[in-house]
Please model this.
Amino acid sequence: MSAALGAHVLVVDDDAAVRQLIDEYLRANDFRVTAAGDGRELMAAFRSQVLDLVLLDLRLRADDGMQLLQQLRAESQIPVIILTGRAEEADRVMGLELGADDYLTKPFSPRELLARIRTVLRRTRAAQDGRAAAVCRAYRFPGWELNLRKRQLATAAGRSVPLSNGEFNLLAALLASANRILTRDQLIEMSRRYDNEVYDRAIDVQILRLRRKIEPNAAQPQLIVTERGVGYRFAAPVEAVY
Model:
Protein backbone atom coordinates (compact mmCIF):
# COMPACT_ATOMS: atom_id res chain seq x y z
CA MET A 1 0.00 0.00 0.00
CA SER A 2 1.56 3.27 -1.04
CA ALA A 3 1.57 6.45 1.03
CA ALA A 4 1.19 8.39 -2.22
CA LEU A 5 -2.60 8.28 -1.99
CA GLY A 6 -2.55 9.12 1.71
CA ALA A 7 -2.31 5.96 3.82
CA HIS A 8 -3.98 6.91 7.10
CA VAL A 9 -2.41 5.97 10.45
CA LEU A 10 -4.13 6.34 13.83
CA VAL A 11 -1.60 6.96 16.63
CA VAL A 12 -2.89 6.02 20.09
CA ASP A 13 -0.64 7.18 22.94
CA ASP A 14 -1.35 9.24 26.04
CA ASP A 15 2.06 10.95 25.81
CA ALA A 16 1.52 14.14 23.78
CA ALA A 17 5.23 14.40 22.95
CA VAL A 18 5.26 10.90 21.45
CA ARG A 19 2.12 11.64 19.44
CA GLN A 20 3.66 14.84 18.08
CA LEU A 21 6.94 13.14 17.16
CA ILE A 22 5.18 10.37 15.26
CA ASP A 23 2.73 12.79 13.65
CA GLU A 24 5.46 15.07 12.29
CA TYR A 25 7.65 12.23 11.01
CA LEU A 26 4.88 10.31 9.27
CA ARG A 27 3.41 13.45 7.68
CA ALA A 28 6.88 14.31 6.36
CA ASN A 29 6.79 10.90 4.64
CA ASP A 30 3.40 11.45 2.97
CA PHE A 31 1.15 9.68 5.48
CA ARG A 32 -2.06 11.03 6.91
CA VAL A 33 -2.15 10.92 10.70
CA THR A 34 -4.89 11.08 13.34
CA ALA A 35 -3.92 11.13 17.02
CA ALA A 36 -5.82 9.72 19.99
CA GLY A 37 -4.92 9.96 23.66
CA ASP A 38 -7.28 7.31 25.07
CA GLY A 39 -9.64 4.50 24.20
CA ARG A 40 -12.66 6.73 23.68
CA GLU A 41 -10.83 8.81 21.08
CA LEU A 42 -9.47 5.63 19.49
CA MET A 43 -12.89 4.07 18.95
CA ALA A 44 -14.43 7.36 17.82
CA ALA A 45 -11.75 7.73 15.13
CA PHE A 46 -11.96 4.04 14.18
CA ARG A 47 -15.72 4.22 13.62
CA SER A 48 -15.83 7.57 11.85
CA GLN A 49 -12.77 7.49 9.56
CA VAL A 50 -11.16 5.21 7.00
CA LEU A 51 -7.93 4.05 8.60
CA ASP A 52 -5.15 1.89 7.18
CA LEU A 53 -3.27 1.08 10.38
CA VAL A 54 -3.44 1.64 14.15
CA LEU A 55 -0.32 2.30 16.21
CA LEU A 56 -1.37 1.40 19.77
CA ASP A 57 0.51 1.97 23.03
CA LEU A 58 -0.47 -0.89 25.35
CA ARG A 59 0.33 1.07 28.53
CA LEU A 60 -2.28 3.83 28.45
CA ARG A 61 -2.97 5.43 31.81
CA ALA A 62 -6.76 5.52 31.44
CA ASP A 63 -7.37 2.32 29.43
CA ASP A 64 -6.29 -1.29 29.10
CA GLY A 65 -4.45 -1.52 25.78
CA MET A 66 -5.06 -5.27 25.55
CA GLN A 67 -8.81 -4.76 25.83
CA LEU A 68 -8.67 -2.07 23.14
CA LEU A 69 -6.74 -4.44 20.88
CA GLN A 70 -9.35 -7.16 21.49
CA GLN A 71 -12.13 -4.69 20.66
CA LEU A 72 -10.44 -3.69 17.42
CA ARG A 73 -9.96 -7.32 16.45
CA ALA A 74 -13.59 -8.14 17.25
CA GLU A 75 -14.74 -5.47 14.78
CA SER A 76 -12.16 -5.55 11.98
CA GLN A 77 -8.90 -6.88 10.59
CA ILE A 78 -7.27 -3.44 10.44
CA PRO A 79 -3.47 -3.76 10.88
CA VAL A 80 -2.25 -2.94 14.40
CA ILE A 81 1.32 -2.29 15.56
CA ILE A 82 1.66 -2.27 19.34
CA LEU A 83 4.10 -0.15 21.36
CA THR A 84 5.56 -1.65 24.55
CA GLY A 85 8.40 -1.09 27.00
CA ARG A 86 11.67 -2.97 26.56
CA ALA A 87 11.06 -5.11 29.68
CA GLU A 88 7.46 -5.99 28.83
CA GLU A 89 7.99 -9.26 26.97
CA ALA A 90 4.70 -10.68 28.29
CA ASP A 91 2.82 -7.73 26.79
CA ARG A 92 4.46 -8.25 23.42
CA VAL A 93 3.66 -11.95 23.38
CA MET A 94 0.06 -11.45 24.48
CA GLY A 95 -0.42 -8.62 21.99
CA LEU A 96 0.75 -10.81 19.13
CA GLU A 97 -1.46 -13.66 20.31
CA LEU A 98 -4.45 -11.29 20.34
CA GLY A 99 -3.84 -10.41 16.71
CA ALA A 100 -1.36 -7.53 16.57
CA ASP A 101 0.60 -7.49 13.32
CA ASP A 102 3.89 -6.28 14.78
CA TYR A 103 5.38 -4.56 17.82
CA LEU A 104 7.91 -1.85 18.57
CA THR A 105 9.66 -1.26 21.89
CA LYS A 106 10.05 2.19 23.42
CA PRO A 107 12.14 4.20 22.95
CA PHE A 108 12.25 3.67 19.18
CA SER A 109 13.71 5.49 16.21
CA PRO A 110 11.24 7.14 13.81
CA ARG A 111 13.03 5.48 10.91
CA GLU A 112 12.42 2.01 12.33
CA LEU A 113 8.79 2.89 13.00
CA LEU A 114 8.35 4.05 9.40
CA ALA A 115 9.97 0.87 8.07
CA ARG A 116 7.71 -1.35 10.19
CA ILE A 117 4.57 0.54 9.15
CA ARG A 118 5.47 0.22 5.48
CA THR A 119 6.22 -3.49 5.88
CA VAL A 120 2.90 -4.21 7.61
CA LEU A 121 0.97 -2.23 4.99
CA ARG A 122 2.70 -4.08 2.14
CA ARG A 123 1.98 -7.42 3.78
CA THR A 124 -1.65 -6.47 4.36
CA ARG A 125 -2.09 -5.36 0.76
CA ALA A 126 -0.58 -8.62 -0.54
CA ALA A 127 -2.97 -10.65 1.64
CA GLN A 128 -5.97 -8.63 0.47
CA ASP A 129 -5.03 -8.99 -3.18
CA GLY A 130 -5.18 -12.76 -2.74
CA ARG A 131 -8.58 -12.72 -1.00
CA ALA A 132 -11.35 -12.38 -3.56
CA ALA A 133 -14.09 -11.84 -0.97
CA ALA A 134 -12.48 -8.79 0.67
CA VAL A 135 -14.98 -5.98 1.26
CA CYS A 136 -13.94 -2.54 0.10
CA ARG A 137 -14.44 0.17 2.76
CA ALA A 138 -13.42 3.19 0.72
CA TYR A 139 -11.81 4.46 -2.45
CA ARG A 140 -9.01 7.02 -2.55
CA PHE A 141 -8.01 9.11 -5.54
CA PRO A 142 -5.73 12.17 -5.70
CA GLY A 143 -6.97 14.70 -3.17
CA TRP A 144 -10.11 12.75 -2.23
CA GLU A 145 -11.55 9.81 -0.28
CA LEU A 146 -14.97 8.20 -0.76
CA ASN A 147 -16.11 6.33 2.37
CA LEU A 148 -18.54 3.61 1.24
CA ARG A 149 -19.77 2.74 4.72
CA LYS A 150 -20.66 6.33 5.62
CA ARG A 151 -21.52 7.31 2.02
CA GLN A 152 -19.30 10.33 2.47
CA LEU A 153 -16.89 12.19 0.19
CA ALA A 154 -14.04 14.07 1.86
CA THR A 155 -10.98 16.01 0.81
CA ALA A 156 -7.51 14.81 1.81
CA ALA A 157 -7.67 17.37 4.62
CA GLY A 158 -10.86 15.77 5.95
CA ARG A 159 -13.43 18.33 4.76
CA SER A 160 -16.73 16.66 3.80
CA VAL A 161 -18.39 17.49 0.50
CA PRO A 162 -22.11 16.62 0.29
CA LEU A 163 -23.28 14.24 -2.45
CA SER A 164 -26.79 13.30 -3.48
CA ASN A 165 -27.60 9.58 -3.54
CA GLY A 166 -27.30 9.59 -7.32
CA GLU A 167 -23.93 11.36 -7.26
CA PHE A 168 -22.56 8.97 -4.63
CA ASN A 169 -23.73 5.89 -6.55
CA LEU A 170 -22.29 7.15 -9.81
CA LEU A 171 -18.92 8.12 -8.31
CA ALA A 172 -18.64 4.75 -6.54
CA ALA A 173 -19.35 2.93 -9.80
CA LEU A 174 -16.71 4.97 -11.65
CA LEU A 175 -14.09 4.38 -8.95
CA ALA A 176 -14.81 0.64 -8.86
CA SER A 177 -13.92 0.49 -12.57
CA ALA A 178 -11.16 3.07 -12.76
CA ASN A 179 -9.54 3.46 -16.19
CA ARG A 180 -12.28 1.38 -17.83
CA ILE A 181 -14.64 2.97 -20.32
CA LEU A 182 -18.23 2.58 -19.11
CA THR A 183 -21.33 3.18 -21.18
CA ARG A 184 -24.28 5.06 -19.69
CA ASP A 185 -26.25 1.81 -19.36
CA GLN A 186 -23.33 0.15 -17.57
CA LEU A 187 -23.09 3.07 -15.16
CA ILE A 188 -26.80 2.86 -14.40
CA GLU A 189 -26.58 -0.87 -13.70
CA MET A 190 -23.38 -0.66 -11.63
CA SER A 191 -24.68 2.21 -9.51
CA ARG A 192 -27.60 0.10 -8.29
CA ARG A 193 -25.30 -2.07 -6.17
CA TYR A 194 -24.83 0.79 -3.69
CA ASP A 195 -28.49 1.16 -2.70
CA ASN A 196 -31.96 0.04 -3.73
CA GLU A 197 -33.18 3.33 -5.16
CA VAL A 198 -34.02 3.63 -8.84
CA TYR A 199 -31.10 5.54 -10.30
CA ASP A 200 -31.71 8.80 -12.13
CA ARG A 201 -31.10 8.06 -15.82
CA ALA A 202 -29.81 11.60 -16.49
CA ILE A 203 -26.20 10.40 -16.38
CA ASP A 204 -24.79 13.46 -18.13
CA VAL A 205 -26.36 15.79 -15.57
CA GLN A 206 -24.96 13.75 -12.68
CA ILE A 207 -21.52 13.70 -14.29
CA LEU A 208 -21.60 17.49 -14.64
CA ARG A 209 -22.50 17.91 -10.97
CA LEU A 210 -19.73 15.55 -9.87
CA ARG A 211 -17.17 17.37 -11.97
CA ARG A 212 -18.13 20.67 -10.36
CA LYS A 213 -17.45 19.11 -6.96
CA ILE A 214 -14.23 17.16 -7.51
CA GLU A 215 -12.46 18.54 -10.58
CA PRO A 216 -9.95 21.43 -10.30
CA ASN A 217 -11.54 22.79 -13.49
CA ALA A 218 -14.89 21.27 -14.43
CA ALA A 219 -14.62 22.72 -17.95
CA GLN A 220 -11.41 20.71 -18.52
CA PRO A 221 -11.97 17.50 -16.56
CA GLN A 222 -8.98 15.38 -15.62
CA LEU A 223 -10.68 12.83 -13.35
CA ILE A 224 -13.95 11.93 -15.10
CA VAL A 225 -13.23 12.10 -18.81
CA THR A 226 -15.67 11.73 -21.69
CA GLU A 227 -15.06 8.99 -24.24
CA ARG A 228 -16.93 10.39 -27.22
CA GLY A 229 -19.67 8.20 -28.58
CA VAL A 230 -19.19 5.60 -25.82
CA GLY A 231 -19.44 6.90 -22.25
CA TYR A 232 -17.14 7.93 -19.42
CA ARG A 233 -13.90 6.83 -17.78
CA PHE A 234 -12.33 7.64 -14.41
CA ALA A 235 -8.80 8.52 -15.48
CA ALA A 236 -6.89 9.03 -12.19
CA PRO A 237 -5.19 6.41 -9.97
CA VAL A 238 -7.62 4.83 -7.49
CA GLU A 239 -6.75 2.88 -4.34
CA ALA A 240 -9.30 0.53 -2.77
CA VAL A 241 -9.14 0.44 1.04
CA TYR A 242 -10.26 -2.85 2.65
